[in-house]
Amino acid sequence: MIDDILKYALRLLSKKDYFESEIRNKLVKKFEDNDGVEEVIKKLKDLKYIDDNRVSEQFIKSQLRKGYGQYLIKKKLMEKGVVISISEIGAYLSEEEDLKRKIAEKLHKYHNDYEKTVAYFYRKGYPYSLIKRLISEVIEDEGYIS
User: Fold this and answer.
1) What pLDDT, on a 0 to 100 scale, did the predictor assign at position 94?
2) pLDDT value of residue 40
3) What is the pTM of this model?
4) Residues in domain RecX first three-helical (predicted)?
5) Long-range CB contacts (< 8 A, 24+ apart) of 7-12?
6) Is residue 95 predicted with pLDDT exceeding 70?
7) What's the sign of the alpha-carbon dihedral 110, 116, 118, 120?
8) Is the pLDDT at 145 greater than 60, yes or no?
């Protein structure tokens, strides 16, 4: 039975990286042998096939490339069973200037619609206070009409 669990886990991991909690849920759902699943999980962790730190780093970078903010990323990680602090996510964040540039682009795209721009970046997970401050800076720097 353990061989079957291991083969299935390796097949899953050959397609993509999983968080420990994700792979555990998939294995328990398929095999219902908790002891066997835990043994396989331990073996995979020892072999470094499961590494939540590595997968978290990849996930955070991917989400940042998609334009998501740190609060939304933290929420998504928590849904996957990974606890991480905002400061850890912040280590991967691009500079505020990059976000400021994106805000300027959205303001232009939305024809200076302040509320639409705030809503867009808030949905992406950026803190409201940061969005407001950077929009104000963009308006001041570039002379947008608010």
Assistant:
1) 61
2) 95
3) 0.65
4) 8-44
5) 9/40, 9/41, 9/44, 9/49, 10/49
6) no
7) negative
8) no
Query: Can you tell me the distance from the alpha carbon of 59 to that of 74, in angstroms, rounded to the nearest whole number?
Result: 11
Annotate 18-68 with DSSP letters as a single string. Answer: --HHHHHHHHHHHH--HHHHHHHHHHHHHTTS--HHHHHHHHHHHHHHTT-
Residues contacting residue 82 through CB under 8 Å, at least 6 positions apart? 19, 21, 52, 56
The rounded distance, in Å, linking the Cα atoms of 1 and 37 is 10
CB 111 within 8 A of CB 59: no
CA 10 to each of CA 1, 2, 83: distance values in angstroms, whole numbers, following the listed order: 14, 12, 25
Neighbours of 77 (CB within 10 A): 21
Position 117 scores a pLDDT of: 92
Nearest residue to 75 via CA among 96, 59, 91, 98: 59
- CA nearest neighbour of 22 among 52, 42, 1: 52
Report the distance separating Cα 40 and Cα 50, nearest Å. Answer: 11
What letter would DSSP give residue 73?
A: H
Place of tokens 């720097």: 141
- Report the mean per-residue pLDDT for the chain: 87
